[in-house]
Amino acid sequence: MKDRKKNIAILGSTGSIGTQTLDVIRSNKDLFEVEVLTAGSNAELLIAQAKEFMPNAVVIADESKYEMVKQALEQSDIKVFAGSEAMGEVVTFKNIDIVLTALVGFAGLKPTIEAIKAKKTIALANKETMVVAGELITQMALDNNVAILPVDSEHSAIFQCLQGEYHNRVKRILLTASGGAFRGKKHSELGNITVKDALRNPNWNMGKKVTIDSATLMNKGLEVIEAKWLFGVDAKKITPVIHAQSIIHSMVEFEDGTIKAQMSRPDMRLPILYALSFPKRVAMPSFAMDIFEVGSLTFEKPDTQTFPCLSLAFDAIEKGGNMPCIMNAANEVAVEKFLNEKIGFLQIPEIISKAMNEFQFIKNCSLDDYLSTDKEVKAKLVKDI
Fold first, then answer.
1. Hey, is 329 helix, strand or coil?
2. Contact in structure between 194 and 178 (CB atoms under 8 Å)
3. What is the mean pLDDT of the chain?
4. Which terminus, N or C, of the chain has the lesser number of Cβ atoms within 10 Å?
5. Above 60 in pLDDT, residue 209?
6. pLDDT at residue 170 above 80?
7. Residue 263, Cα to own-chain centre: how many angstroms?
8. Backbone dihedral region of 108: left (phi > 0), alpha (psi from -120 to 50 degrees) or beta?
9. Maximum separation of any 2 CA atoms in the chain, in Å
10. Which residues contact 135 (CB under 8 A, 6 or more apart)?
């Protein structure tokens, strides 16, 4: 008997992960159906996506674009909503099977919470949700019997390596990183880095914010925190590894000394497809990798002297409470300022470190604490920088 199609809601359908998710669905129309699409302000692309995939509903967070989207889709049966609050409402639609959260930054937290409350399976591509409120999210998922399936390539790799190993103790997680655009450079070489330089990731096709985070190694710090909560492993047992080829996406070491690794081409559509089709694997010949063309695989320790953001992330998760939230908020502001050429590349970790020392620390946090912390940090830094 043929399985019914899975109905997918994509939060952030016009971004890098969102568009690649639609590539996956486009190639597997017999397996997946688009139920909901949401976008921040890219109304033109949202309209084009809606006309192609004919979802039940779309949301444009930028309310000034509502009439434009509504008029463009008025000949269809597609429901059109606007505003960030609407994202938290559409994820509760009865027909949705999986909510893929591809929103960038803190914006992904509240819709993810609403989707968990509605008992939807979460395909998680928004790492900041776990960075800011990992303890809260994991407990909510447990209480609601909701699966959180990782979409980040590294966390998908760890997830795959752990299949069939749940009764075996994990000694260490080896979290790989490409090293970003400036791998091998020293602090003295980064003073005059331009935005264009920083956006040249050697291996991955990612959005601007994630690409800058990759260049500072903050992305790896965020992923360490995410891995801690997703897999219930102490951060001290997570070791970042620079692997320039991006062929091994992460590894898990067990107590007997065995290390399992997941290898594939550096293509985000692979972990997206795995999350959407889990527990089955779907044949995609175009993703095949010729092992004989891979060549050498190399591994290096990260240079945390040159790239201190990784150490800042370990400091944040060790302190706990709202400290990762403070760090994340400061990073979001700093990266945006760098992309707008308001600050230099080396000022990013300086701004984050200063924020972590200055803002009020709260040990035991509620959702309101996370929301207020994010708002306070961003408001002050946007004003001061």
1. helix
2. no
3. 94
4. N
5. yes
6. yes
7. 20
8. alpha
9. 63
10. 229
pLDDT-derived band at 363 (thresholds 50, 70, 90) equals very high
Bridge partners, 8 (sequence order): 34, 98
DSSP assigned state of 64: G
Quick one: average pLDDT of 317-346? 96
Q: Given 3-state DSSP classes, what are the helix, strand and coil percentages for the chain, each rounded to the nearest 5?
A: 50, 15, 35
Pair 197, 231: CB distance under 8 Å: no
Strand partners, 49: none
CA dihedral for 342, 346, 352, 355, sign (positive or negative): negative
Work out the average pLDDT over 65-79.
Answer: 96
- pLDDT tens digits for range 24-45: 999 999 999 999 999 999 999 9
What does each C-alpha distance from 245 to 202, 203, 204 come to in angstroms?
9, 8, 10
Element (H, E) at 130: helix 127-143
Spatial contact of 73 and 51, defined as CB atoms under 8 Å apart:
yes
CB atoms within 10 A of CB 187: 12
Tell the burial category of 1 from Cβ atoms under 10 Å away from its Cβ (0-12, 13-18, 19+): exposed
Residues 190-200: tens digit of each pLDDT: 988 899 988 88
Determine the 3-state secondary structure of 238 from DSSP. strand
* Residue 1 reports pLDDT greater than 60: no
Classify each residue of 264-298 as buried b or exposed e, where b means 16 or more C-beta atoms within 10 Å of its C-beta.
Answer: bbbbbbbbbbbbbbbeeebeeeeeeeeeeeeeeee
| Residue 72 predicted with pLDDT over 80 | yes
> What type of residue is 277?
S
Please identify which residue in the block is written with the tokens 């320039």: 244
**Rounded distance between C-alpha atoms, residue 324 and residue 127, angstroms:** 12
Q: Which DSSP string corresponds to 262-281?
A: EE--S-THHHHHHHHHTTS-
* Residue found by looking up tokens 């150490």 in the block: 311
Residue 77 is which amino acid? D
Q: Are 102 and 126 in contact (CB under 8 A)?
A: yes
